[in-house]
Specification:
Elements lengths: L1 E9 L5 H8 L8 E5 L2 E3 L16 E3 L4 H12 L3 E5 L12 H4 L3 H17 L4 E2 L8 H9 L3 E2 L14 H15 L9 E2 L4 E2 L3 E2 L6 H14 L2 E7 L15 H13 L5 E2 L2 H5 L12
Parallel strand pairs: 1-2, 1-11, 1-12, 2-5, 6-7, 10-11
Antiparallel strand pairs: 3-4, 8-9
Helix pairs in contact: 4-5, 7-8
């Protein structure tokens, strides 16, 4: 089984200390895939500090030199993978940038090149802000030869003319009707691949994520823990549940304790091939 951590919202507003506190120890065990915003708009996202929130001003990543140097060093050590996380992230309308936005092909092209040149990386994965993507957004990803760091679905743009779309849809339907949880394998749509993130947030439970993890392990599949560095200290909305950070470390402990688990980056898993619902590689 392959295991990865997807962390969203690294941007101009992020400090190296925040990432180091969240993942300094974790990256001694395995890499963390960071979804990075190239030109963050100061909107309503909780990742935006209160003193900037709602201003609407644009903040390019290169304006935070200490963070850029920290990311460069982390990439060179193999601690971090850099993924593209939208363009501005926050829209003035508060609608999802890559669900209803415009000029998306250019935004992906320009945002990707900006991060690649700035940090010195090759970007293979796109993660839409708020996990929200529409048909135009998915088309822009395909046009850019990127994979998707979440699961889209038929309603969000999978081609209705593709046999792989309906094969994947039927596979997922059978899995969930049989009581299966999550999506413990890579979704191969032919022109791109997708990996579902398992939320590690205040509204998620350790019990459900551990059940999904064990299903993925049984299938020799994949498990992607999706979280936010800025939310790791947050309490769960459920009584007797651990904090978000403790929740994440419970999953990390599971991954580290089993020799059948290979810790990889999101891009590394998506680019290595596909595992279907029966644990078969193809």
């Amino acid at each position: 089984m392959h295991f990865c951590i997807r962390d969203d919202d690294t941007s101009f507003f992020t400090t190296p200390d925040e990432l180091e506190h969240a993942y300094g120890q974790v990256t001694q065990w395995g890499p963390v895939s960071l979804a990075v915003v190239p030109f963050h708009r100061a909107g309503t996202s909780k990742a935006v500090p209160e003193k900037f929130r709602g201003r609407g001003s644009i903040h390019p990543l290169h304006g935070n030199r200490p963070l850029v140097e920290y990311l460069r060093a982390g990439v060179s050590k193999g601690s971090f993978e850099i993924m593209l996380h939208g363009y501005h992230h926050d829209e003035p309308s508060d609608q999802a940038e890559f669900s209803v936005g415009s000029d998306l092909v250019r935004k992906i092209k320009d945002g990707r090149k900006y991060l690649e040149d700035l940090i010195g990386v090759s970007i293979r994965v796109f993660v839409p802000p708020h996990n929200a993507i529409g048909r135009r957004g998915l088309h822009a990803i395909v046009q850019s030869n990127l994979h998707l760091g979440c699961a889209a679905g038929v309603r969000s743009g999978w081609s209705p003319l593709s046999q792989l779309t309906w094969r994947t849809w039927i596979q997922l339907r059978r899995w969930h009707k049989s009581g299966g949880l999550g999506v413990p394998w890579i979704l191969d749509l032919g022109d791109h691949k997708e990996i579902a993130g398992n939320p590690v947030t205040p509204s998620a439970t350790v019990r459900e994520n551990e059940a999904i993890f064990r299903s993925a392990l049984k299938l020799d599949g994949v498990f992607c823990a999706a979280t936010h560095y800025w939310e790791l200290s947050a309490s769960s909305k459920y009584v007797d549940e651990p904090t978000v950070g403790e929740h994440l470390h419970r999953l990390i402990d599971l991954a580290r304790s089993d020799s059948r688990v290979v810790w990889n980056t999101v891009g590394g898993i998506l680019c290595r091939g596909t595992v279907d619902g029966a644990g078969r590689g193809f």
